[in-house]
Design brief:
CATH topology of the largest domain: Aldehyde Dehydrogenase, Chain A, domain 1
Structural class: alpha/beta
CATH superfamily of the largest domain: Aldehyde Dehydrogenase, Chain A, domain 1
Number of helices: 15
Strand order of the largest sheet: 12-13-14-11-10-16-17
Distance between the termini: 58 Å
CATH architecture of the largest domain: 3-Layer(aba) Sandwich
Length: 455
């Protein structure tokens, strides 16, 4: 068994990687568990030193990593360099704050001393997607390693070059050789890794279908899992919104990474009073996007990562149009090599259409009209997903109320594009999964929250 990576810009083969058999995987798990036994007693200061070193490597070699991302999954160079720097920021965050976030917490009881401490679980498996091939991994790895665990990475087969480079980054930064390893395996082999007695927990970022499968496997083995699944984030634009601000945030949130993001802005729910003006400005903004070779510094939208992903997206667009949506821009497959899809705008989107109720993983924006605030909130919540969202209004108290109390999702930003941030918890509800990454909550997901009481 072997895995072939393919350049999505022209369909050419990149590299072939030999797969690992069950015996090799078992040996790697055993060595990771041994490395973790020593690492869990390593002082926080040393763990932080290694994380800072990893961050420095990511910054210094960002152009190199960006070119690898461009080759393997089509990310434009500027976006790839920004991703590498963001990975450095999460390393720096946990290097600075990890010890304090995991410090014992005293509790008053009748005993002479009681406290809660946070101890590592052991070996944690990460099953990660291709769309942010470095960031998805580092937002798992930085808190997990800082907490004293070992990490195993089962990455998507189309970004194995990125996966193996991450292993090298961490080794070059001074982490023990076997503390973080990449498993070159297929999906069918992942179940055996989850069930292995030395693997204590699982983190998955991926599809709803993958989440259900991993949750079932982890549940059967009585192991904790964190699931960050799909999203169909609603950006609600109210009648008192600053339309220039709203349009910029909506377009940036939709078309970054060619729309291949769980927290991309996917549904623009616009109150009828400003829908026409919003749509006109959005069209003008979308026309500034430049689709092309990700190695061209002028490119803002590269190819989709795989041919099947483009086929699925186009089928969703055509089905939505057949059911009454209007296509104002894009919506046609371009000729020529590569898995490109043009920036597309659908309006008159409503229930029963894929654009309304499914996740569109690509550069397709959807405008949905709403008569007023209440209707807009109802549409925003009329989704199987609940990952993120945004509200645009000049009334900040109104925006805070809707973000806090009305819109059902793991995060809502007011008057700005939703992004993941090392300082804030990240995760969803409903079909978007459960558990949290990042912030204080993220570093405490894969620890034993242990109570100690001394007479």
């Amino acid at each position: 068994m072997s895995f072939q990576t393919i350049n999505p810009t022209d369909g050419s083969p990149l590299a072939r990687y030999p797969g690992m058999d069950a015996a090799e995987v078992t040996a790697i798990i055993g060595r990771a568990a041994s490395a973790q036994q020593s690492w869990q007693d390593t002082p926080f200061a040393e763990r932080a030193r290694c994380l800072r070193a990893a961050g420095a490597i990511l910054r210094q070699r960002a152009p190199e990593f960006a070119r690898l991302m461009a080759a393997e999954m089509g990310k434009p160079l500027a976006q790839g360099e920004a991703e590498a720097r963001k990975c450095a920021s999460v390393c720096d965050y946990y290097a600075e704050h990890g010890a304090a976030l995991l410090a014992p917490q005293p509790v008053e009881t009748e005993a002479s001393r009681s406290f809660v401490c946070f101890r590592p679980l052991g070996v944690v498996l990460a099953i990660m997607p291709w769309n942010y091939p470095y960031w998805q991994v580092f937002r798992f790895a930085a808190p997990t390693l800082m907490a004293g665990n070992a990490g195993l990475l089962k990455h998507s087969p189309n970004v194995l070059g990125c996966a193996l480079s991450i292993e090298r980054i961490l080794r070059d930064a001074g982490f023990p050789e076997d503390l973080f390893r990449t498993l070159v395996i297929d999906t069918d082999q992942a179940g055996a890794v989850i069930a292995h007695p030395q693997v204590r927990a699982v983190s998955l970022t991926g599809s709803v279908r993958a989440g259900r499968a991993v949750a079932a496997q982890a549940g059967a083995a009585l192991k904790k899992c964190v699931l960050e699944l799909g999203g169909s984030d609603a950006y609600v634009v109210l009648e008192d919104a600053d339309l220039d601000c709203a349009v910029q945030a909506c377009a940036d949130g939709r078309f970054v990474n060619a729309g291949q993001s769980c927290i991309a802005a996917k549904r623009f729910i616009v109150v009828d009073a400003v829908r026409e003006a919003f749509t006109e400005r959005l069209i003008a903004r979308i026309r500034r996007e430049r689709m092309g070779d990700p190695l061209d510094t002028r490119t803002t939208i590269g190819p989709l990562a795989r041919a099947d992903l483009r086929d699925q997206l186009h089928a969703q667009v055509r089905s939505s149009i057949a059911r009454g949506a209007r296509c104002l821009l894009g919506g046609e497959l371009p000729s020529g090599a590569g898995w490109f899809y043009p920036p597309t705008l659908l309006t008159d989107v409503g229930p029963g259409m894929p654009a309304y109720q499914e996740e569109l993983f690509g550069p397709v924006a959807c405008v949905i009209g709403a008569r007023d605030e209440a209707a807009a909130v109802g549409i925003a919540n009329d989704s199987a997903f609940g990952l993120g969202g945004a509200v645009f209004t000049r009334d900040l108290a109104r925006g805070e109320r809707l973000a806090t109390r009305a819109i059902h999702s793991g995060a809502v930003f007011v008057n700005r594009q939703l992004v993941s941030d090392p300082r804030l918890p990240f995760g969803g509800i409903k079909d978007s999964g459960y558990g949290r990454e990042l912030g204080a909550f993220g570093i405490r997901e894969f620890v034993n929250v242990k109570a100690v009481s001394i007479a």
